[in-house]
């Protein structure tokens, strides 16, 4: 009786193997963070193809070119949000009187509970959105969605500024527009006398924790498309020239690496939205980027990966002047992160400080 026990145990284990493989993934904790759902990816690819084809047709002499020739260059302000745009009244003052020079696009996380009704410039400007979360490529996908929507919507969009609900402008619209449009740019390879706009995006190659961020998906997960020496980091918030916006929505090669979910044990090093854009642009057109951001962020007392959040007691004219200061040739044009209850103090100094050139 007892001699048959090992045999019986072996048979039971053998028969149970299919059940182990079937149910183990549901019982054991996952090794990676959540990935982008395949239906979302399929929707995005269709959107990006439409944006690419529309841009190619416009460049080939379609109706889009005639529209661009009859319209001055515009700035596409792309709001990536997961809560109310509390500073909409500040942005309305910023936009007022310049309706021919800008467009607004909003990507709102579908699970976000938005309470405030959209103000004039934001009404009807919400694009089809997908869920977003930290430590995942969903934030990259959302930014690409905004770029595609802006490319499709208006061929006159020349610059694409990514903004959060916690951002405010630091200058008047006239100042911001002139700073972007009058940038000297870089010579075009095809026509050296013609100059192309540059993108304002931070690109850093020597961050002390870059290695940890690089291996967040696994030691060799980024190879061969992205060797470590080409991996970059930068601010999530940028202002892209149109050709770079198109480059982003056309990309498939690097995206297949950056869309991979991070390992759960590397969650604290997983910030895909800070890596994809600087890496892609540094690989494709390093001379066409300024390598610095136009959005000021205070990291002196960051908490859990979030920058300093300004409170009402900190709002003053001196703070605005200080936030504008930059080591580059340009003043900072935007700043974050401000708590929603800063609205009234900001409105109080809007005309006399923020929008006074």
Question: What's the pLDDT, averaged over the residues?
Answer: 90
Helix and strand content put the structural class at alpha/beta
**Estimated helix fraction:** 25-40%
Which strands sit side by side, in order, in the main sheet? 2-1-3-8
- Uncertain residue ranges: 62-67
H-E string: HHHEHEHEEHEEEHEHHHEEHEH
SS summary, helix count: 12
Distance between the termini: 95 Å
GO molecular function: glycosyltransferase activity
Protein name: Glycosyltransferase
Subcellular location: Membrane
Main location: membrane
Topology record:
Elements: H1 5-27, H2 38-59, H3 63-69, E1 74-81, H4 88-95, E2 102-108, H5 138-153, E3 157-164, E4 168-169, H6 173-181, E5 186-187, E6 195-196, E7 199-202, H7 210-214, E8 239-241, H8 242-250, H9 255-258, H10 276-284, E9 289-291, E10 295-297, H11 317-324, E11 334-336, H12 343-354
Parallel strand pairs: 1-2, 1-3, 7-9, 10-11
Antiparallel strand pairs: 3-8, 4-11, 5-6
Helix pairs in contact: 2-5, 5-8
Task: Outline the structure in words.
- By secondary structure, the chain is an alpha/beta fold.
- Helices cover 37% and strands 13% of the residues.
- The protein contains twelve helices and eleven strands.
- A four-stranded mixed beta sheet has the order 2-1-3-8. Strands 4-11-10 form a three-stranded mixed beta sheet.
- α11 links the parallel β10 and β11.
- The relative contact order is 0.14.
- About 2% of the residues have low confidence.
């Amino acid at each position: 009786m007892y001699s048959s026990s090992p045999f019986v145990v072996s048979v039971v284990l053998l028969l149970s193997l299919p059940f182990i493989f079937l149910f183990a993934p549901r019982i054991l904790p996952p090794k990676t963070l959540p990935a982008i759902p395949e239906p979302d990816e399929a929707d995005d690819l269709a959107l990006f193809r439409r944006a690419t084809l529309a841009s190619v047709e416009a460049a080939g002499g379609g109706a889009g070119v005639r529209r661009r020739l009859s319209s001055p260059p515009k700035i596409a302000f792309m709001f990536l949000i997961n809560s109310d745009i509390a500073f909409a009244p500040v942005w309305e003052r910023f936009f007022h009187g310049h309706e021919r020079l800008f467009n607004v696009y909003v990507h709102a996380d579908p699970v976000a509970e938005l309470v405030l009704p959209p103000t004039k410039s934001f009404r009807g400007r919400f694009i089809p959105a997908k869920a977003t979360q930290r430590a995942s490529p969903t934030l990259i996908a959302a930014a690409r969605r905004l770029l595609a929507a802006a490319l499709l919507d208006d061929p006159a969009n020349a610059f694409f500024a990514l903004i959060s609900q916690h951002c405010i402008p630091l200058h008047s619209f006239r100042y911001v527009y002139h700073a972007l449009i009058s940038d000297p740019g870089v010579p075009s390879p095809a026509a050296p006398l013609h100059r192309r706009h540059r993108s304002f995006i931070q690109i850093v190659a020597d961050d002390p924790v870059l290695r940890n961020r690089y291996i967040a998906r696994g030691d060799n997960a980024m190879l061969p498309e992205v060797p470590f020496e080409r991996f970059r980091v930068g601010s999530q918030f940028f202002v892209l020239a149109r050709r770079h916006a198109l480059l982003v929505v056309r990309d498939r090669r690097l995206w297949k690496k950056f869309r991979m979910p991070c390992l759960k044990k590397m969650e604290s090093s997983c910030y895909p939205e800070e890596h994809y854009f600087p890496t892609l642009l540094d690989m494709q057109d390093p001379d066409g980027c300024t390598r610095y951001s136009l959005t000021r962020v205070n990291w002196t007392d960051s908490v859990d990966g979030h920058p300093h959040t300004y409170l009402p007691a900190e709002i003053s004219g001196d703070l605005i002047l200080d936030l504008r200061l930059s080591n580059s040739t340009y003043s900072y044009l935007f700043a974050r992160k401000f708590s929603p209850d800063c609205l009234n103090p900001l409105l109080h100094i809007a005309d006399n400080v923020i929008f006074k050139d």
